[in-house]
Amino acid sequence: MTQPIGPSADLPSANAVDALYSTGHWLYSQQRIVHAVAVFRAMIHLAPRDERGWLALGACHEAGDQPDIALQLYATASSITTAPRCELAKARILRARGMSEEARSAIAEATRIAEELNDEDLFKLVAAERGRL
Hints:
The chain is 75% helix and 0% strand. By secondary structure, it is mostly helical. The chain starts with 13 loop residues before the first helix and ends with a helix.
């Protein structure tokens, strides 16, 4: 049996990624955090440039009182893809730790991305997080 060749050969189907995302969120909503973590980890391995997986995995670790791991996940996402919501999540954790300058830097990066994308919803999220500083 031959393997597909070309750019689409290594791309996951959008349906598979969306199914993982939906399943992970259902598990998270049922307080099954350990199971949700496993699903979101599979998602980021399958689609590492999909910010939703990183954000959800970070949220699981925040819910499990592991903010250091969440912070690293958000930072990793930001280093490999455009991840403005992960920048805002980083800002939230940094602000809670009293690290205002670092939080402002994360918000500034989210602002830059919002301007680049001209994303009105993202502008609202940025404004809300900026208002919490």
